[in-house]
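User: I'm putting together a small comparison set for a docking exercise, and I want a reference complex before I start. The sequence is below, and the ligand is zinc ion. Could you produce the 3D structure with the ligand included, as structure tokens?
Assistant: Of course. I'll restate your input first, then give the structure tokens for the complex.
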Amino acid sequence: MSTGNVVCPRCNENSRIRRNGRSTSGMQRYRCQLCLKTFQLDFYYLGSCPDVRQTILEMTKGGSEYKDTARTLGISLKTVIRQLKNSRYKVN
Ligand SMILES: [Zn+2]
């Protein structure tokens, strides 16, 4: 079964990607047969999406309060702080 233009976020492989069931929230998951990692492209909860960390960082550097960032993005305050810590941003 072809998965179209799904690309592995780790190794950028796009021809050996297989569907790998669904996440608990019902999103399609994929498995890369090259690096054997599983991943998903769509997230029910935005806080789980890898791209959201960059948004959080930019909002924080732009002077947004953590709780405002959380509310704007529709994620929890804990997620905001965890993502900032993971990005090695100095959390006050
Ligand atoms: Zn891969």
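Strands lie at 17-22, 28-32, 38-40. Residues 84 and 90 are 8 Å apart (CA to CA).
User: Thanks, that's exactly what I needed.
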